[in-house]
Amino acid sequence: MGNFCVSISHAKDNVDKATVGFVVANAAVGSEQDTVVFVSSEGAHLAVKGYADDMHEEGFAPLKELMTNFVEAGGNIWVCSPCFKKRGYEESDLIEGSTLVGGAKLVELLVGGTPHVTY
Prior knowledge:
5 strands; Hypothetical Protein Ychn, Chain: A
């Protein structure tokens, strides 16, 4: 079991990038990689209950389905706490499988050489 990190900084401002990020994350977790999706900036919206329900990029599964499958397969969604709070959300707004974290948590993961891709 290895580690893999996908960073997503887009949501409805770029549904394609948000979707492809979760496609890659699902591929990683499906390949038995201990996988984290880190959502930041506009991507923090993705961690809000109901936000991704109507997001669907043509040619891909709906984003909500991709996110649900990722969490059910054992993936973790880390949400940039300052990004989330800046947008007026509270911890009670988080979707299942997501956790608020600070930048130090991401640095801790990456400093050990964890592969990382960004969308």
